[in-house]
From TrEMBL:
Ranges for domain Peptidase M14: 108-402
Official protein name in the record: Peptidase M14 domain-containing protein
Transmembrane segments: none
Family matches, as SMART domains: Zn_pept
Family: Belongs to the peptidase M14 family.
GO CC terms of this entry: extracellular space
Pfam families named in the record: Peptidase_M14, Propep_M14
């Protein structure tokens, strides 16, 4: 009873207020300390927004700050406060976003409705190369769309490079990067037409539309991660724990107030069901599945459910390394590349494992985009452009490596 009551109170406080919340950066120095932080991440008092074997960040309330500070001191884990007022920074970001409203540029974070309208405009402007399809609805009945981008040669049944974004609500840079991918392939076609010679690109720029709009509705909701379907004590499911491949294994929670709540059953969420149906409709055609997340600067691949290497692990590593090399040459940023469960921690029910295992994607990679803002995820609107440009460099390099392998 106490656990359920605490979870309910925690869920409500997390959803309704970020007042006096902070973000701590943690510095584990050995495996024992890393494992301890992983254990703490399973406690609903702490919202770990970044967690690998070597680094971590955690969002804390005033009460949980006291608790975790004591534990960190006890076990000798170093830390520092990297954001002393999460709500103030969320308010500042919201104000800056509202003041930057050019036509579908890289100057601000767009609403779900704006993104959908823009997709329709592209189809109307480039009817020979662009095909927009409404593939379903979110729980709150927001239309979910894909855009298929071709070179206009009329060939059907080509292999596919599939990109999705907006899985986790608070990761705003993810759909912004998806938008930039679309812009480069459609509006900058001449420069990028080689990418479309033997592959169609299908992009789903917004999966978790309800959660995304909830984070935009008020700065106090900025750190929401999950979907918005109500459950017994708290709303929402982690959509990236809700896919039916090794569902319910490591790295998931049965508690609905946890950010890693996997849901009552696989595909309990309309959003994940929609993505499943799209992927299965392309089974056998997907050369490259790429899902965009933040934050961290990682290129990770199956398996994520356990520390097991995929049958074509060397190919997965090679494609990820191509992305690393291109980004490093462009900006000097160093991504980490490797097996998801080994590089980070096991997390079952993710879309990259599902696309690889069930939709037969030859290469399946999660691109964790680098952090930029003090909130822990996104650059301020004024800095979106260099982030998405850098990410595009890596995406092109990985796509070219895949095309060379599987043409």
């Amino acid at each position: 009873m106490w656990t359920k009551t605490f979870c309910l109170l925690f869920c409500l406080s997390s959803a309704l207020a970020l007042k006096d919340y902070k973000i701590l950066e943690l510095f584990p120095s050995n495996d024992h300390q890393s494992d301890l932080l992983h254990k703490l991440s399973e406690d609903s008092k702490f919202d770990f927004i970044k967690l690998t074997k070597s680094e971590a960040q955690v969002l804390v309330s005033p009460e949980s700050h006291k608790v975790i500070s004591s534990l960190l001191s006890k076990y000798g884990i170093g830390y520092k406060v990297v954001n002393n007022d999460v709500l103030a920074d969320a308010i500042k970001e919201s104000e800056e976003n509202e003041s930057s409203q050019e036509r579908m540029g890289t100057d601000c974070y767009r609403s779900h409705g704006e993104i959908n309208n823009w997709l329709d405009e592209l189809q109307a402007k480039y009817p020979q190369r662009v095909f927009v399809k409404q593939v379903g609805f979110s729980y709150e009945r927001r239309p979910l769309k894909t855009i298929t981008i071709t070179n206009g040669d009329g060939r059907s049944g080509k292999k596919v490079i599939f990109v999705d974004a907006g899985m986790h609500a608070r990761e705003w840079i993810s759909p912004s990067t998806g938008i930039y991918v679309i812009q480069q392939l459609v509006e900058n076609f001449e420069e990028n037409k080689a990418l479309l010679k033997d592959h169609d690109w299908i992009v789903m720029p917004m999966i978790n539309a309800d959660g995304y709009e909830y984070t935009r509705s008020d700065p106090k909701n900025r750190m929401w991660r999950k979907t918005r379907q109500p459950y017994k004590t708290c709303a929402g499911v982690d959509p990236n724990r809700n896919f039916d491949y090794m569902f319910g294994h490591a790295g998931t929670s049965t508690l609905s107030c946890m950010d890693t709540y996997r849901g009552p059953q696989p595909f309990s969420e309309p959003e994940t069901s929609v993505l499943r149906d799209v992927l299965l409709s392309l089974k056998g055609r997907i050369s490259f599945y790429l899902t965009l997340h933040s934050h961290g600067a990682y290129l990770i691949y199956p398996w994520g459910y356990d520390k097991v290497l995929a049958p074509n692990n060397d190919e997965l590593q090679d494609v990820g390394q191509a992305g690393y090399d291109a980004i490093y040459a462009y900006s000097g940023r160093k991504y980490l590349v490797g097996n998801a469960a080994i590089l980070m921690y096991p997390a079952a029910g993710a879309s990259d494992d599902y696309a690889y295992a069930r939709a037969d994607a030859r290469i399946s990679i999660t691109m964790e985009l680098p952090s930029g803002g003090k909130q822990g995820f996104d650059p301020p609107p004024s800095d979106i452009k260099p982030y998405v440009e850098e990410s595009w460099i890596g995406i092109v390099a990985m796509a070219n490596r895949v095309i060379a392998k599987y043409n």
